[in-house]
Every structure is written in structure tokens, then in C-alpha cells.
Amino acid sequence: MVYLNDLGIINALGDDKNSVIGALFKNQTGVTESKNLISGRKTLVGSVKSNLPLIPSNLSEYDCRNNRMLLHACLQIQPTIEQIITKYGQNRVGIVLGTSTSGIDNGEKAFIYNEENGHFPEEYSYKQQETGGISNFLKAYLGLKGVSYTISTACSSSGKAFASAKRLIEQNICDAVIVGGCDTLCQLTLNGFDCLESISENVCKPFSIDRNGINIGEGAALFILSKEPSEISLTGVGESSDGYHITAPDPTGNGARLAMLQALEMAKLSSKDIGYLNLHGTATIKNDEMEREAVLNTFNNYLLPCSSTKNLTGHTLGAAGATELGLCWLLLSTKYNPNRILPKQYDTKENLIPDMEIIMNSISWTSPYFMSNSFAFGGSNVSVIIGSKQYV
């Protein structure tokens, strides 16, 4: 058994565990900032307003907003990280992170500067935007000497990081792994999704009949995964790759269903053991319909309480898996959610697509196992299950 010992989190809802869970209970969206797109259209995004820590001067080549946000999450759990390093040693603590764009926002600004001035700014380094930069930065910052790498499979990136981290521990390569993800807003993703006609001008409406696209967000979530017993365990992970289309999901939902079934099998659970499902729920026409098919075929007639939280945080892309698992971790925690509340989906109306048990009023969860889905371009699917031993 492996456990999620601690969590550091920052996104549009807040910049620590208390502020994030507080906004979640208040049903308070962080998707509020308007952005202009190249097309002339506008969209709302879930941006982080908090002041972020500075990157140490000896690591200035990694200085970008993405790594500053990652550092903010790390600082929240650094005392626990230091205890783990002291116990197991620098060689036995690994890092597995997920991202889709890393610090490409810095690269975009450097490119514009180069066009105007004929050279890149002195402070720019490709390491700031390189996919592996977030893991390399965190490894250098913490002085670790073990396994460290980044997974980049678009929106399933940080969800898949948990599968990889779990394997590292079970194969005795690591005793503990710092696992999670980070992604920050940039023009590439905003305008890229706009080109796909998948951006919403207003707060998105997952699983609504009149849904019309996503909101992009940013954030970071970091966990410590180890065999050290704690309240919440990582019980199952399922991965699949259906390869149906480079951007469109398989309308049958077979790949997504396979990931959920594999997660249930690893966790040794039946579909009726799941107390809550955090849906991928992007609010695009095709994704929500696909996920509906996958969920109904996986859980049959079981009325599974579920919701999407992307209209609260925005879709944090490569960080979505870790971000939404962070929300599940907080909702399972006796410290942060002693009354076992499952908050209703934001701005839920009656015009939902049929048969889904979307949470329309706050309820209490009854089974201590939560599942979180993340589905990405190219059919890269992951489903993660965590459980609380306090209620088993």
C-alpha cells in the first residue's frame, strides 16, 4: 500500500489547502479573468493572483512563472519533504511531475523580444520552457540525487505521474516520490483551443445541454507518495491509449472506460464502492458526451455522485490530474472536511445531459473511495482512485 502523505496546492481557488477547500465549499469560481484571443474573441480563464516566491539566484536559469508556482506548492510541504529526505536519503526520494506547456509563456515573451531587438533577453534560458525543466528545477532546489523526470501527455500528464510514481515505489527504485503537476497560462494553449472552436466566452458548463467549450486555468499540486502510513492512500490507477484521433475523443468512450475498469481492478473495488467521481468534464460538446457513455457503461445503473470542477479552477491542462486529485484528497480528509461534504457542481441548472448523477445540492459522501478522470488528446486516458482508511 502507498499513501499520499501531504499536499501542496495553488490554483484559481486559492493558494493553500485551507483557501482552496474554503472556496470549494462556497461554490466560488476562480474563473474570472478575461483574455483577448488572436481571433478577436474573448474568454475567461482561471488565473492565480497570489504573489509567487522568487527562484533562488543559483537556479536563475529555471526562473519562470511555471517553476515559481511549483515552488509555491513545494514550500507548503517542504517540512514533510525534509523529513522524508532525512529518513530515506537523497538517492531514494524521486520526483515525477506532469506538465503540458511548462514555462512556454517565458518562451513566447522571449520570442517577441527577439523579433523586436534581434536577440533573446539575457535572462532567458530554454530550460525555463523545456518539458523536463520543472522536474530538473525541483530536483536541484531540494538537492535530490535520485530518479527525476516529467511526463507530458497533454491533459492526462499529472494523472499518469501517479501511476509512474506508484511503480517506482513498488519496484523498490524509490522509497518516496514527490508527485504532481504544474501548468501556467500561455498564448499557445489559449489560442490553440480557440482554433479548435473549443473555448467558452463565459464560465464553462460541464455536462450541460448548452455547453459550448472550456475555460483554461493554471495551477500546481504536489503530493508526497510513500509507504509511510497516513490517512489517504493511492489505491488504484488505470491507463489506456485508444488512439482514436489526434484531438477528438472516441465517441464510444471505450478507452476511458478501460482506464476506469483498470483502476477499479487494481484497487480491488467494485463500481459501487466509489463514493464520488471527479469527472474530466471539460464542457466541450464531444468530451462530455464521450465521458457520459464511458461512465454509464462502467457504473451501469449505479447512481454515482459526480461533478466537474473545471468551472471552478479552469482546465489546468497538464496539471489537471494532480489538481483535481488534490480536491478529492481535501474532500476525503477528516481535517479539511470533517462533515464529509460533497459540494454541488458550480452553477448547476436543470438542463443537464440525461442519466448523469451530477451533484446539484451539497450532499455527504458515504463511501471513502474517490475516483478522478483525466482524458487527453490522442486518446491518452488515466483514472486514479484514492481512499481514506479512517472510514474503511
UniProtKB/TrEMBL annotation:
<comment type="similarity">
    <text>Belongs to the thiolase-like superfamily. Beta-ketoacyl-ACP synthases family.</text>
</comment>
<protein>
    <submittedName>
        <fullName>Beta-ketoacyl-[acyl-carrier-protein] synthase family protein</fullName>
    </submittedName>
</protein>
<dbReference type="InterPro" id="IPR016039">
    <property type="entry name" value="Thiolase-like"/>
</dbReference>
<keyword id="KW-0808">Transferase</keyword>
<dbReference type="InterPro" id="IPR020841">
    <property type="entry name" value="PKS_Beta-ketoAc_synthase_dom"/>
</dbReference>
<dbReference type="InterPro" id="IPR014031">
    <property type="entry name" value="Ketoacyl_synth_C"/>
</dbReference>
<dbReference type="Pfam" id="PF02801">
    <property type="entry name" value="Ketoacyl-synt_C"/>
</dbReference>
<comment type="pathway">
    <text>Lipid metabolism; fatty acid biosynthesis.</text>
</comment>
<dbReference type="InterPro" id="IPR000794">
    <property type="entry name" value="Beta-ketoacyl_synthase"/>
</dbReference>
<feature type="domain" description="Ketosynthase family 3 (KS3)">
    <location>
        <begin position="15"/>
        <end position="388"/>
    </location>
</feature>
<dbReference type="Pfam" id="PF00109">
    <property type="entry name" value="ketoacyl-synt"/>
</dbReference>
<dbReference type="InterPro" id="IPR018201">
    <property type="entry name" value="Ketoacyl_synth_AS"/>
</dbReference>
<dbReference type="InterPro" id="IPR014030">
    <property type="entry name" value="Ketoacyl_synth_N"/>
</dbReference>
